Amino acid sequence: MAPSADGAFVSIHRLVHAASSGQSSPPLPGQSSAERRWCWRGSTASGGIAGRSFPLRTGSCLLLASLAARGLGRRGRRGRIARAAAKTQTWHAAHSEALDLDAAVREIVLSWQGSMRSSLAPGAEVPRPSYALVFAPSRWAGSLSALLEKLARELRWPIKFAPILATVSDGPMLVLHTFFAAGSASSGKQPPRVFFLGKEELDEVSKLSVNPELRTTNTMKINGTVLAIHSFLEREPQDVGSLLLFGDISCGARLLNRALAALDVAYPQATKAGLVVSRHDNAAPFAIAFRGKVVSKEGGILGLALPAEMNSAIGFCGCRPLGRPLEVREASLDVGGFIRTVGTAAWASGSWGIPGVVEFKESSAPPRHESIPAAIALRSIVKDAGASYEEGDIWIGVPRVSKLDERSYKVAPGAGEWALYQWAATTAEGTAVLEGEGPAGDGLGKKGIRCIQAFVPEPDFGKVGLLEQSYALERTARGQGAPCATLLFLGGSGASASVPDQSVHGGCAVGLAVIGHAGLTLGQAGVGGTGSFSYSTAKLRPTLMHRQSAGLVFLNT
Fold this sequence. Notes:
Layout: H1 5-21, E1 35-43, E2 49-57, H2 61-69, E3 91-96, H3 101-119, E4 128-137, H4 144-155, E5 164-169, E6 174-181, E7 193-198, H5 199-209, H6 212-216, H7 224-233, E8 242-248, H8 253-266, E9 271-277, E10 286-290, E11 293-297, E12 300-306, E13 310-316, E14 319-332, E15 337-347, E16 369-373, H9 374-384, E17 395-399, H10 403-407, E18 418-426, E19 432-434, E20 451-457, H11 463-478, E21 485-491, H12 493-497, E22 509-511, E23 513-516, E24 519-521, E25 544-547, E26 549-555
Helix pairs in contact: 1-2, 1-3, 3-4, 5-7, 7-8
């Protein structure tokens, strides 16, 4: 690999053009006497002549012939170009459904080379590799690091300064997304920052937040945790326009929400979106290729702080409500989720003021509906709907916000109103037991919950299209330009079943839940200056995990 950024440009540029000329392996840049230099020229946007030199081995006739055939050679004594200048494409995606790892990597590399080759044109500025994303199917979870090493080697990707993030996906295909930044490295913007927040890292942030030396520089009286996160990530709020996040829930939902809350308070105006991935074979679900080496990570949040803004559209996908909400009478949410009894439409016997109750049977108790075990009420709803779902197929929704916020439209419908948890088991008393840590893991139910709503899986093949249409309408209304790339995240089996062709948008990632803000998020980082910090903006919507949801992430340059 070339030791500098310019060398990386040379390696990638020659890799693509050598592939178009039929060479099996493009020559690497070197300093031997057998090498010479060849310069192609193109017209810039201003009408001038732009030139860049690339070292080529003597005798590369096939490569020169291929370049001449594509119109990249000189024409005439003054070097007149063959084609007009074109805008450089900054995003390239490739995917493969091959079952063999080596075959999948070969297909990915060839497809990526074709995309790169078709985007290069005379006059276009040579792009700078910025970062790459890899979504690997679960069958290769145990060899994720080896896969990343092989892919980086075959792509000649400069992992010395351009990171590659790899995550496990429940989807069937291997997916690669690469991003190139137009312009030089000295453009003034900070490069993407890779970070990981696990238990050890969050404890380090907590210690740093009470460091006397850090607090002496706190002239604005900002919370110490905010300054600690800025110091840990080495990025100020004005340097971060968005955060791309991937979570491993094996550490517990509480720790993931703790990390998300820390990022919310430190970078309140930066849009955050991503995916909670699942674990397979007890293998680490993350791998990072950066600074010349590959490392594995697990049990926390893997993030990428980007200087550009990012928009998102998140909503329920692959599930629908069943019946009406049930009033919760008794529940235990301190440890796990136990919904014991719920109210019914029938009045309890002995209540006064109810038609049909004889006067001498009146009691001092106010009118009250009957209470029955939650499991019996949920089964009755399923039976009345004529459905045949098992307990493990039913998801129970818990309100995220108060009834006042729901009535005042302060939250997005669906994913903004309900947090879903799978119905895992039923006790002998008829208590419905929720899977995992339950609402307490997401910080819900500290003062109890007022109601629950049953949801059942049902593929919704048009949901992703509706999310994309809603975003397009809102973007057009605000006068924003089209995004340079779109990522699709599917959280849950219902969302995955709703997208039969998972090669859409260059290949999607499938996990347990989608991370982000429910509904549409546009232009959040541009309010009051990109990335500027104030406690008033820290009251924006929190970043949450949405199960049985789909999320579209729109990346901007």
